[in-house]
Each structure stands twice: as structure tokens, then as C-alpha cells.
């Protein structure tokens, strides 16, 4: 009996060791080879996990809601965030998610001896925290990203001032630029670098160009900006050619598509041209007009012989019940028109027509009575975004890119600073180069001479900033920041429908912070300055001034 018990114990022991060994084997087998663990995260695997989402977020905001704020587009449905700044409660989770991965990139790159990756991490930390400060104002910064370090109070971190965040952004960019200047690209995989394919010299230009952006951003509140920008320009290490723009391509794959690709009329036809940008493009005969926007699907034709407006559709001049199809209208071979008497009614009969900013009923603007006019669908009498932006067709070539910093932005910025007396080169030369480099990405660089004749330099900051605004199409966040800093371009809204006659200044702190980090967010809100448009929401209004605007009298 004892012998049998002894044998049984031996068998159980062997079996237990086998199970333990099998569990270890299963653990290894079940590890995702593409997953990134904190203790062994490969810096080349971490890079695209930071660069990709950062660029996509930046483009999505700049091509949609910010494009509405800066009056490039308007929407006919689901338009609150685009047409009327419904930003009263915006959460920043997506930004901090990327920043957490980026902190791991910086940590591992530093510990493992990869300075190039560390420099990229510092650049992207500045890029992301800079946006948070731009959009909200004060925010968690010095104590952020430390919830899992044992410092439990950082589960609900205090807010740093917007001023201190900007100082941190500038410090990170200086450090990154110095790292890149050493030229050590040890361990870099070109395929992991979604912006510059491992070109360290271009990363140095990117970091320095971002540094100029933020020096200028705070120039009304800081005495260091002028000397800082002059030193960077003197180094020559900035983006001055469109070939060096910080961009990310879209491959068109299932997980890498342009953000406005749609598959049904209900969504795709909601993005229409804004009257402000269309009037600017029409007035200057801008060659980018036909690249960005499509002619109206159905054009109004004046006819003094009829009364009011005709509901009849004319196809090639003959009455018809046929309407242009919502998806193929840009490829139509027929000419669709409707007649109106200009003595009775006032309709826009131009080839390109935009919607006035701030309208709540944009779908019926310009007497759109055609089918599909309900629930925010197609307005046949207003220009849509060009189809390439919405279906990602191959004919778009390399135009479908997220653009983080551009040569055009740099040249227009330096033209403005030159007009202030900064030693950064000749204002007119930078203005001219800004125009040239803004046409190149859209395939119309060969039309520079004819276009420049219409926008020749007049020596004013308003002209420089207006052309910089036009060039920021697809990157409207920077136009918004320029507008807040300078008041240009001059923008107004449909005051009878919009809740204020001017664009908003910031995002409201979101529900997550208000509910879970109440004491800290309340202190930050108290540091905001109420304006005449803040309304019943009070200091957390999208129309309240953060530190960067307080005391400047800008933008209104």
C-alpha cells in the first residue's frame, strides 16, 4: 500500500513539473510578437506607434472641425463641431495615450543608446504637448504620464500653466535639435520612420522649424522669441523647401486611409466649401481652387424672362427629370442648370460657390431644392470638396498627406517676423517663397507666375497672414493659432445663427477631467479670462482667453 502511494506521489510530481513546463511553453507561444512590453520595447517598433497616430490626429482635426473654424469647409449635417464650435466638452485621452507610448520610446532609447530615437521622442513630445496647450490652455504636464510609477497622486495630476508647458516644449525641441545635430543614427530602421525614412538631417530641420513655430506662438508674451528665432534662421537648419516638409503618406490600405473616405452619400456630401475661402480663391484666380473644390453640380443661369426661380432641371439646355448622381457628379459629361430671374431673387450663379460660415441650414443655401436635400445631404448649388479627398482615388497621387510642418509655413512666418524688424531675411523674398512652396504640394507650381501677379507683395502683415491661411488648407490648426495670435485673416460669422460673431479660442475641458480630476481642473478654469462671448458657461467657455491671449487684445 505504501509502495503504491509512493509511486503515485512520484507520478504527481512528474506531472506537476510537466504542467509547469507546458504553461511556460504556452506563455511563450501566446505572446504576441508584435506587442510592445515596457521592459523590452524595441524602439523601431515604438516609432510608428507614435508617429502614425500623431499625424492622423493632427490631420483629422485640421481637415475637419478646425477647417470649419477657419472657414475652409462647412457641413450640411452633423455640423456642430465644424460650423458652430461645439467644443464645450472635449477630452484629450487620445493625446495622452500617444504620449504614454512616446515616453516609453524616450526611456528605452536613452537606456539602450539610440540617440536618434530619443531625439524623435523629444520632438514628438513637444509636438503633442504643444497641441494640448494650444487647444485647452493649462493641462497636466510635469506630473502627467506617471500614474503607474508608484506616485498615486498622479492618477489625478495637477495642471501646469500654459506658459510652463510652452517653456517645456521649447526646451524639448532645443534638446532634440542638438541630438540630431550630432548625426548619430545608430539603430534606425528607415521603414519605422513614417515621416523622413531615417533622414536625421531632415529631423533636425523639423525640430528647429517646430521651435520657430512655438517661439512665434509666444512672442507677444516672451522677450526671448526674437533672439531664438534669429539664431535658428542663422543656422540654416530649417525647412525651406517643400521637399523637406514633415509629411506622412496615406497608403490607402484598410488601416491607413485618408480620414474623409466615405462609402455613402449621407456622409460624404456633407463637406462643402465655405464662402470665405471660395471668395478668396475666386478673387485671386488661385490655381488651387480646382484642386481642392469641385464646381457646383447644378449652376444657376440668369433669365429675365421667367418669374423668380424655376424648379425645372435643364440637362444640356433641355428640360429633364434627371439629376446629377451624388457620387459621379464630378465625372458628369452633361451640363446641369436651373434658371432664375435676378430681378426677383438673388442666387449665386458662379462656377464655384461656398456656404456662408455659421449657417445652421446649410443644406438649403442657394435655394437647393433638389433631391437628397434632407438630413444634411448633397447641396447641388454649392461646391463640394474635390472627390479625391473623399474616396482616396489613385489620381490624387501624393497629395493625400498629413502635413505637420511645411516650408510654406516657415517662409510666411519669417516674412511676418521680417516685417516686425527681426533679422530673418527679406520679407518679400520669404513671402514669394511661401507662395511657391504652397503651390508645389498641390501640383500647380507651374502656375506660380500668373498667380503671383494677382497677389504680389504689398508689404502688409495682413496679406502675408492671409496667404499663409490659404496655404494652411488641410492644416487648419495652424491657421487657427495664427488667427488667435494676430486677428488675421479677418473672419466673421452669420451672426443671426452662430452663437457668437467670431471663431472660438479654445476647447472646453472634458467630462473625464471635470468628473474625476475636479479640484485640479477647477483651479485651471479659474485662471481663464472671461470675454464678452463666454456666455452662461462661464470661464470654461470656448470663448474664454487662456494665458497666451490674456493682455494681448487678440484676436478680437
Shape: globular
Q: How many domains, in number, for the residues?
A: 3
| Number of β-strand runs | 8
β-strand percent reads 5-15%
Instruction: State the CATH topology of the largest domain.
Output: Serine Threonine Protein Phosphatase 5, Tetratricopeptide repeat
Looking at the overall shape, the CATH architecture of the largest domain is Alpha Horseshoe
Mean pLDDT: 87
Strand order of the largest sheet: 4-7-5-6
**Helical element count?**
20
Uncertain residue segments:
1-39
Structural class: mainly alpha
N-to-C SSE string, H for helix and E for strand: HHHEHHHHHHEHEHHEEEEHEHHHHHHH
Q: What is the CATH C level class of the largest domain, in words?
A: Mainly Alpha
List the helices and strands and how they pair.
Layout: H1 2-29, H2 43-63, H3 65-69, E1 73-75, H4 80-83, H5 93-112, H6 115-135, H7 162-181, H8 200-217, H9 225-235, E2 246-249, H10 265-268, E3 271-273, H11 275-284, H12 289-292, E4 299-302, E5 313-315, E6 318-320, E7 336-340, H13 388-391, E8 401-405, H14 407-419, H15 427-439, H16 448-452, H17 461-471, H18 476-486, H19 511-516, H20 518-526
Parallel strand pairs: 4-7
Antiparallel strand pairs: 1-3, 2-8, 5-6, 5-7
Helix pairs in contact: 2-5, 2-6, 5-6, 6-7, 6-8, 7-8, 8-9, 14-15, 14-17, 15-17
